[in-house]
Amino acid sequence: MALPRPIGGEGAAADRAMTGAAFGLPIWGALNVILLPLLAGRMPQWTAEGMRALFPALVGWLLFGFALGLLTTGVVRVAERLLGATPAPSAPKFPEIKTRVVILGGGFAGVTAAMNLEKEFRRDPTVAFTLVSETNALLFTPMLAEVAASSLEPTHISTPLRSSLRRTRVVRAEVSGVDFENRHVKLAEREEELPYNHLVLALGAVSSLPPGDGIAEHALEFKTLADAIRIRNHVIDAFDHADGERNPERRRALLTFVVVGGGFSGAELVGALNDFARGMLADYPSLSADDLRIVLVHSRERILPELSASLADYALERMRARGVTFELNARVSAARPGAVVLKRKAPGKNRCD
After folding, report:
1. What are the residues whose beta carbons fall under 8 Å from the beta carbon of 34, sequence distance 6 or more?
2. Cα separation of 174 and 158, whole Å?
3. CATH entry, 215-344, from 3.40.50.1390, 3.50.50.60, 3.90.190.20, 3.30.70.940
4. Highest mean pLDDT among 46-50, 210-214, 313-317
5. Per-residue DSSP letters for 72-132?
6. What pLDDT is attached to residue 86?
């Protein structure tokens, strides 16, 4: 019988007695109301009259359970006096941590490293893993363009780190520095320092925007989930403002979107934004397809240099047929509100001057 209090504590006898009495009710129902009538060839005594006739048996079972609870407590106390009290369970022993592995970065590289290390040392509890990340989710960056184009929700391309890493401690923080001599990782805005025996650097890369030409102030980055949501909201805001604009030139400027870079990310983003924006025209009857311009600026002769020339040309022609404008052999040299400045490659040169 389960007891809410220790056996030798105050009220233990009463607790056991009440618990024993409580067991009398289901025993009476199963035995006297159902089983015994069935063994005698009768129907179970479900009626009020039948149960009323069995009421003395119920009282007997309750008293039996009450007495059994008291008797059990008495027997246990006598046994404790003769044999000694049952020793309290010892506290669980955790193995000493001998090796600490700290992983900096919660992207594909960092999470994959943590998952493989967990698998490799799954039978060795003396090895501890810690992963430091600025976010608490693993972002599937190849699908960022779909979020920017509102074809996927942000939760569809992110997975909580703690759900993927069962044994690794996840610390959401920004790394402010590493003390290589003393083997400590310093965290920004936190007093805690993370000691390590092995350090894994998987921090990835950041966008490099040249200062002084207005690009950093006026361009929208495309690196994180927040960036994708910001781009989507910017497109929607631009449509809302253009819907109330009566000046055709200003309306066309509001609906001109420039994507810089024709690699995988840029090409996918410009294609997704083009479909998104042209699909939104149906919700804005006052706007026409002639007002909308989606422009891709790329510094080389063809987009998608990672692919073969035939595939890159095919992608360009398909997007051009869907309304995307391409500015090839050009770089964005400056940006200001409402405009970008391009530097074009001179004939016979390999770079934009």
Report:
1. 44, 45
2. 19
3. 3.50.50.60
4. 313-317
5. HHHHHHHHHHHH-PPPPPPPPPPPPP-EEEEEE--SHHHHHHHHHHHHHTTT-TTEEEEEE
6. 66
| Confidence band, pLDDT 50/70/90 cuts, at residue 44 | confident
The sheet that has 324-327: what strands, in order across it? 256-260, 293-297, 324-327
Res 35 pLDDT > 50: yes
User: Which residues fall within 8 angstroms of residue 179, CB to CB, at 6 or more apart?
Assistant: 185, 186, 193
Q: 99-201, which class in CATH?
A: alpha beta
Tracing tokens 């992963």 back to the chain, one arrives at: 131
Q: φ and ψ at 139, to 5 degrees?
A: -100, 130
Structure tokens at 91: 């506290």
Res 143 pLDDT > 50? yes
d(CA 115, CA 120): 9
pLDDT of 129 over the 90 cut = yes
Alpha helices in the chain (DSSP H): 12-28, 36-39, 48-53, 55-83, 108-120, 144-148, 161-164, 215-218, 225-243, 248-254, 264-280, 309-321
Tokens of 105: 């970065």
Measuring CA to CA, how many Å separate 244 from each of 30, 99, 284, 286, 294? 77, 63, 10, 9, 20
**Spatial CA neighbour of 134 closest among 189, 168, 174:** 174
- 8 Å CB contact between 161 and 202: no
3 state SS of 236: helix
Per-residue pLDDT tens over the stretch 255-274: 999 999 999 999 999 999 99
Burial class (CB in 10 A: 0-12, 13-18, 19+), 122: exposed
- Is the pLDDT at 11 greater than 80? The verdict is no
Euclidean distance between CA atoms 207 and 205, whole angstroms? 7
Dihedral sign (CA 56, 61, 65, 68): positive
Q: Are strands 169-172 and 158-160 parallel, antiparallel or unpaired?
A: unpaired
